[in-house]
Design brief:
There is one protein chain. The protein has two domains: 213 residues, 3-Layer(aba) Sandwich (D-Maltodextrin-Binding Protein, domain 2), CATH 3.40.190; 264 residues, D-Maltodextrin-Binding Protein, domain 2, CATH 3.40.190.10. A hairpin with a 2-residue loop joins strand 6 and strand 7. It starts with 5 loop residues before the first helix and ends in a 6-residue tail after the last helix. By secondary structure, it is α/β, with parallel strands linked by helices. Helix content is 35%, strand content 14%. The longest helix is centred in the C-terminal third of the chain and has 19 residues. The strands form four sheets. A six-stranded mixed sheet has the order 1-3-2-4-15-8. Strands 11-12-10-13 form a four-stranded mixed sheet. Strands 5-7-6 form a three-stranded antiparallel sheet. The chain contains 18 helices and 16 strands. Helix 1 packs across helix 4 and helix 16 crosses helix 18.
Length: 486
């Protein structure tokens, strides 16, 4: 079976296009970081390592260290170590962030673990730059795991424990699992919908949330006709925001949590028009129609991700199609947080609405770190998961197993968590993505950008675009020898 690596393809493109574009970066005490970045440090109080510290170092080997066995407040309390973490939350570096920022979390952590220093670097171009860090071989102790093949996880990150055990510790343990081992713990869990400004919708005379693509497009038109706001902001220029559209083609659009990881690879023409406003066709057509009908920003090439947060908060934008992780960021971006809300994606399947629920970025621990660094990193990850309140504070769904506390609610909407790939088929989606070059849920930003480009220029119909995708998918099935069962 033909096998390629998504990581290699992404990095090749980045090295060709992106190296000269990243001309400068904010200074970092932990080495180079392309893109706009910043640093936050929690400095541990200095103290001599004790006998307990020596025991911690011994226990911190990859053979003896596991998430399930770690007891917060008891283990490694005397461990002295300095670790680094690289992540995407640049907004949390600021003292003006409307929620709890990194400095505050680290101060709380050091109350319990005063001898562990955590140095945090953030990056606005994280999705791409994290891959560059991994390729260099010199990367941070903790990273939010970027879009790498699951079969490559063990090359970069240590295991937290076996999948069956980790399922008793955390929700969404499958998210970064491979071959029975778990390599990532979700920082928070999210669902998929649309973040919007309630006041803009109200000013446009919209009294009920849309449940179909037609309703949604009509609402965008009302916003354009009756307000000064941009109805829907694409965030085209950011790139990574485009790939977010892929997250809606499974449970949200079909109501089947086995589709994304089990059925999609075996489906013929998955981008066909099912003529009932469901499946991938209906998801991507919303974007095409919104652009084609000029219900988005005037010049998609000049969109500004960071600026869009305050624009939505201020009522200059009606809505954006992003995961629920974006909800608290928009709330915190200005004085009008109470105007920000989150709605289900406007697709109804047999009279019901569904929402995919799953892990956001997951913490991965550098497999090449020292034993002390691995132990310190494991402590910090488990503390962030179980004691910091991070997921709740960020309006997420709970990550700790058994926890039900969340501020997010979709009345009448059924949450579905995607089932993992069938045994022996774990690499199928990676292989299909690589061969077809569609990269669904794997950094396939450019294909979504092309939808916007063609819709704006009027030089290719939506059906023609979907036809090209179907051919690429069907050809990849033949090349990879994957059966067509649906």
């Amino acid at each position: 079976m033909k096998k390629k690596r998504v990581l290699a393809i992404v990095l090749s493109a980045m090295m060709t296009v992106g190296v000269t574009a990243c001309g400068s970066s904010a200074s970092s005490t932990e080495g180079s970081s392309t893109g706009a970045s910043s640093d936050t440090t929690a400095q541990a109080a200095s103290s001599d390592a004790s006998e307990a510290s020596s025991e911690a170092a011994s226990a911190g080997s990859s053979d003896g260290l596991s998430y399930a066995n770690l007891k917060l407040g008891q283990d490694y309390t005397d461990l002295k170590a300095t670790i680094t973490m690289f992540n995407h939350r640049t907004d949390m570096d600021s003292d003006d962030y409307g929620g709890k920022n990194w400095k505050s979390y680290l101060a709380d952590f050091n109350k319990e673990y005063p001898n562990i220093t955590v140095k945090i670097t953030t990056d606005t171009n994280y999705a791409d730059d994290a891959l560059t860090h991994l390729q260099s071989g010199d990367y941070e102790t903790i990273m939010m795991i970027p879009a790498v093949d699951k079969s490559d996880l063990s090359s970069y990150f240590m295991s937290y424990g076996d999948l069956d055990t980790m399922k008793t510790q955390i929700n969404y343990a499958n998210a970064q699992a491979y071959d029975g081992q778990v390599y990532g713990v979700p920082s928070t869990a999210t669902t998929q919908g649309i973040v919007y400004n309630k006041k803009v919708f109200s000013d446009a005379g919209i009294t009920a949330l849309p449940k179909t693509p037609e309703d949604f497009i009509a609402d965008l038109q009302a916003i354009k006709d009756k307000t000064d706001a941009i109805p829907m902001y694409t965030n085209y220029a950011a790139g990574w925001t485009m790939g977010a559209w892929d997250a809606y083609i499974g449970s949200n659009a079909i109501g089947d949590n086995t589709y994304m990881n089990q059925k999609l690879v075996h489906t013929k023409d998955p981008f066909q028009n099912y003529k009932d406003d469901t499946h991938a066709y209906a998801v991507y057509k919303i974007l095409y129609d919104a652009v084609n009908k000029k219900l988005v920003e005037d010049d998609y090439t000049t969109t500004d991700w960071e600026g869009s947060k305050s624009m939505l908060n201020e009522g200059k934008i009606g809505c954006m199609v992003l995961g629920s992780w974006a909800y608290p960021q928009m709330e915190a971006a200005g004085k009008n947080g109470s105007d920000i809300a989150y709605m289900p994606f406007p697709i109804t399947v047999d009279g019901k609405q569904y929402a995919a629920a799953g892990a956001d970025y997951s913490y991965g621990i550098n497999v090449n770190a020292t034993d002390d660094e691995k132990a310190a990193a494991m402590v910090f990850v488990k503390w962030m998961t179980e004691e910091s309140g991070f997921s709740y504070n960020e309006d997420g769904l709970p990550v700790k197993a058994g926890d039900t506390k969340t501020k997010l609610a979709f009345d009448g909407v059924t949450f579905l968590e995607d089932e993992p790939a069938k045994e022996g088929e774990e690499d199928y989606l990676n292989e299909m993505n690589s061969e077809s070059e569609l990269n669904i849920n794997a950094g396939g930003n450019d294909k979504i950008q092309k939808i916007i480009e063609h819709a704006a220029n009027g030089d290719e119909s939506f059906d023609d675009i979907m036809g090209e995708w179907n051919k690429a998918w069907d050809d990849a099935q033949q090349t990879n020898g994957i059966s067509v069962d649906y």
